[in-house]
Design brief:
The chain is mainly beta. It folds into three domains: 135 residues, Galactose-binding domain-like (Jelly Rolls); 155 residues, Jelly Rolls (Sandwich); 81 residues, no CATH class. The chain has three helices and 28 strands. The strands form five sheets. It has a 15-stranded antiparallel sheet that branches. It is elongated. This is Transmembrane protein. Keywords: Membrane, Transmembrane, Transmembrane helix.
Length: 475
């Protein structure tokens, strides 16, 4: 058995841990949830600074921390950054990352390799008109930090997440499968779980389904909506949330029920809500779990992922169990009766004399043949991202292959303490993916595709540069 350290997420609404000062406005309307393609804000809540100055402090014990928010920090008319912000750990400035266009779940500030121990994060923001939106902080806690009543972040490569052999990496944005019946299992202690995924536009777009079961119980189906033609890849998508669970150890099994020509199932990360039971360790068990057999389609409850069966409904369901032997016997008997009636009818019909027709001239009718049209499906010509520089689609790359990006001038910028600069390679960390290539979509999709999935940074750069438009249709 091995252990993995999870990260802890603190939402903007947790004023017991976040100390706000200045001109902050709390928003719970989900005002920006449909903006960009990085999914909604966490719990659809944000804290903002409008035309003023605000700041907050957060004390933590750990070695890494990220500050997430909603970004739109360039006044294109005035050619200036608005809003502006600075982040500090123990009074020392840390890296901050901006973006010209609106996106949720954006890493505003980040630092790694801190000394493992207590620290104080300070964030100061100034707005001249455009709001500064803060969403949540995520940090890697020190060993021994309690996970009591915490929101825990578990990424797709955590060893406690156990995949069967039908899964493969989707670049570095997650793990994916398009094999019907593929499973993944995860054991956790808590009161709820949320699956966060990605819907890639370069793969099949037709809707599909999956299902999950908890502790070997009935399966609950969830929908994978797919994408419209020409839509952009959608990151940080909420695939399903479990209902509230007892505060105990649970095992969830997730099964892909789609096919290779439908939207794949992708795991980016999991959110686990822990309960009040004392959890004194920041490690998650990764012991091997046996995969259960696939349930038949009749055993999957096609209900909303948040539905909770009542005792009355469960009792009614149990009363509807059918005696299989009785049904089979009844069907066989009905078939025998039909056959007897058929042969009796034929016998009586042949026994009767046939009338002679008045004319022996027959009209020979020939059915008009229908035309067979040969059709074949072709790859989506709008598929950008990820293929240029990878050669033929059938070529296999070794595990250690690192694709070389096709560089363009991006709009992303970052600020390292005492230095503010534009970077040609795009921001290094603020999105679901950090490497890949841009393509004109002229190559077909094949086995080598998944290891070279696009980065959000290069995609954003292309979106801003095409025809000189500030962004594409998802603004």
């Amino acid at each position: 058995m091995s252990a993995a350290r999870p990260r802890i997420v603190v939402d903007d609404t947790d004023t017991s841990q976040l100390r706000y000062e200045g001109e902050w406005v709390a928003d719970a309307s989900g005002i920006n949830d449909r903006a960009g393609n990085f999914g909604p804000a966490l719990n659809s809540t944000l804290h903002g600074v409008f035309n003023g100055v605000g700041g907050f402090e957060f004390e933590f014990s750990g070695s890494e921390i990220d500050v997430f928010g909603t970004t739109l920090n360039r006044d294109r008319n005035a050619r200036r950054q608005d809003p502006t912000w600075d982040c500090f750990v123990d009074g020392v400035a840390i890296e901050k990352i901006g973006f010209d266009f609106i996106e949720n779940n954006w890493v505003m500030c980040t630092v790694q390799n801190l000394s493992d121990g207590p620290h104080i994060l300070t964030v100061n923001a100034t707005s001249r008109g455009r709001p500064f939106w803060f969403d949540y902080v995520r940090y890697l806690p020190s060993a021994g930090v309690s996970l009591d009543n915490a929101l825990v972040y578990v990424n797709d490569t955590n060893p406690s997440v156990q995949y069967d052999s039908n899964w493969q990496p989707l670049g570095d944005v997650g793990q994916m499968t398009s094999v019907q019946g593929a499973k993944v299992m995860f054991q956790f202690r808590g009161t709820g779980l949320t699956w966060i995924g990605v819907t890639p536009r370069e793969l099949p777009l037709e809707p599909s389904i999956g299902s999950y079961s908890i502790d070997g119980g009935n399966s609950t189906a969830f929908a994978l909506q797919g994408l419209a033609e020409g839509a952009t890849t959608q990151y940080h998508q909420i695939v399903f949330k479990t209902p509230r669970l007892t505060d105990d150890t649970h095992t969830i099994t997730v099964t892909y029920e789609g096919a290779r020509n439908t939207t794949p199932l992708v795991l980016s990360h999991l959110f686990v809500q822990t309960g009040s039971s004392p959890v004194l360790s920041t490690s998650i068990s990764s012991q091997s779990l046996p995969f259960p057999p696939s349930p038949s389609s009749s055993e999957i409850s096609i209900t909303a992922a948040t539905s909770i069966p009542t005792p009355a409904a469960a009792s009614a369901s149990a009363s509807r169990k059918i005696n299989v032997a009785a049904v089979v016997g009844g069907v066989i008997g009905a078939i025998l009766l039909i056959l007897i009636a058929f042969f009796l009818y034929r016998y009586l019909k042949r026994a009767r004399p046939r009338p002679v027709p008045a004319s022996h001239e027959f009209i020979h009718t020939v059915p008009t043949p229908f035309m067979l049209v040969s059709e074949r499906s072709t790859p989506n010509n709008n598929s950008t991202a990820s293929l240029r520089g990878y050669g033929a689609a059938s070529q296999q790359w070794s595990t250690g292959y690192i694709p070389q990006p096709y560089t363009e001038q991006p709009y992303g910028w970052r600020n390292i303490p005492s230095t503010s600069r534009l970077v040609n390679e795009g921001p290094s960390r603020p999105g679901p993916s950090r490497r890949g290539a841009i393509s004109d979509g002229s190559e077909s999709e094949g086995p080598s595709y998944y290891g070279g999935y696009q980065t959000w940074g290069h995609t954003k750069a292309q979106e801003g540069l095409v025809e000189g438009r500030p962004r594409d249709s998802y603004i």
